[in-house]
Amino acid sequence: MLFASGLAAAAALFETVEAGKQIVVPEVIYFGTLSWLRRVSERRSFELTLYDPREPDSLARSIKPGKLDIVWIETPVNPTWDVIDIQAAADIVHEAGAVLAVDSTVAPPVTTRPLDLGADFVAHSATKYLNGHSDLTAGVLVTNQIDDRWKEIRFIREHAGGVLGAFESWLLLRGLRTLAVRYSRCSDSALRIAQHFEHHPAIDACLYPGLESHPGHEIALRQMTNGFGGMLSILIQGGAKEALKVATGLEVIVRATSLGGVESLVEHRASIEGPESTVPPNLLRFSIGIEDADDLIRDIEQALSSL
Ligand SMILES: Cc1ncc(COP(=O)(O)O)c(C=O)c1O
Fold first, then answer.
1. What is the CATH topology of the domain spanning 179-304?
2. Where are the domains of the chain?
3. How far is the CA of 30 from the centre of ligand 1 (A)?
4. 110 CA to centre of own chain
5. Structure confidence at residue 31 as a pLDDT band (50, 70, 90)
6. Best residue among 125, 257, 267, 269 to mutate for probing ligand 1, ranked by most atoms within 8 Å of CB
């Protein structure tokens, strides 16, 4: 089902949760989804619980039996790119009689198919990889069971006005035709960039699930079967000042929000998210596009040399 934005798709699913029920999400997810859940959970009296996906028992421990309705996960997690095991989460959630929704925006269906791994719903911000040209906002919800909840989501979409316009639908179809080649290209380039900068003297760490050193690499190998995508984060040595200096010094990579387009972007997440952000102040998030990988490496090198 198509929606006017990724958040409209997420909101339509959450709208189906009855008062008194529980929604569980990882501590770090796209901050727009978490802000929506935090604000609405107070008003609508459903219980929002955050869990730490790095702790093996954390999901199971956070579940309130009889109350749990939806567990919503995002993988890889923006902007640390931690990887959550979808199959393992689905087993725990189903045992509790609830449903698992996966925001797979960063891992589109060319690389990850959450329904095959046991998820009940998959959400995408189609604004990102599915469209790939940064010229529309759109959202997708996918399921493999047409049940009462699905019918209710359709009702909410229509009656709350979250439909996708005809022109955006046409643009999205155009973008989808090149998804496989775009994703393959940006995955190859991002891996090269991550490998190049992993041990660079001006950076503290490079976070990319395709790196063997990444804590989620083993799960990513199983779950991201056709590339690890174009999203990576670099922790610059120093703090916010140094990270911002590098971001402003880039000449090919553009400083802008959003991700998953043909052009490479950089973003200082902590500034975007504001004082409540838990993102490290020295973190720069890169969305690698389809430009020449050597040009991108040279661009980051020259920006780092200004430190
Ligand atoms: C992982 C993820 N999910 C959902 C969204 C929200 O999508 P939209 O901007 O289409 O509402 C975003 C947007 O950045 C995102 O990164």
1. Aspartate Aminotransferase, domain 1 (3.90.1150)
2. 2-176, 179-304
3. 7
4. 15
5. confident
6. 125
Of 185-194, 268-277, 298-307, the range with the lowest mean pLDDT is: 268-277
Residue closest via CA to ligand 1's atom 7 equals: 6
Neighbours of 14 (CB within 10 A): 22
Ligand 1 proximity of 6 Cβ (cutoff 6 Å): yes
* Residue 78 beta carbon below 6 angstroms from any ligand 1 atom: yes
CATH architecture, domain 2-176? 3-Layer(aba) Sandwich (3.40)
pLDDT in tens, 35-93: 999 999 888 889 999 999 999 899 999 999 999 999 999 999 988 999 999 999 999 99
pLDDT of residue 50: 97
How far, in Å, are 5, 14, 93, 158, 244 from residue 161 at the CA level?
A: 11, 16, 31, 5, 39
How many CA atoms does the CB half-sphere of 191 hold within 13 Å? 14
- Does the beta carbon of 16 lie inside 6 Å of ligand 1? no
Q: From start to end of the chain, where are the E strands?
A: 2-3, 22-26, 47-51, 68-74, 99-103, 121-125, 139-143, 203-207, 231-236, 254-255, 265-267, 283-287
Atom 15 in ligand 1: residue holding the nearest Cα: 30
In angstroms, what is the span from residue 106 Cα to ligand 1's centroid?
9
Give the pLDDT of residue 45: 87
Predicted confidence (pLDDT) per residue in 204-239, tens digit: 999 999 999 999 999 999 999 999 999 999 999 999
Calculate mean pLDDT across residues 279-285: 96
Q: What angle do CA 76, 114, 159 make, to 5 degrees?
A: 95
Nearest CA to ligand 1 atom 6: 6
Amino acid at 220: A
**Mutate which of 127, 164, 259, 269 for ligand 1 pocket (most atoms within 8 A of beta carbon):** 127
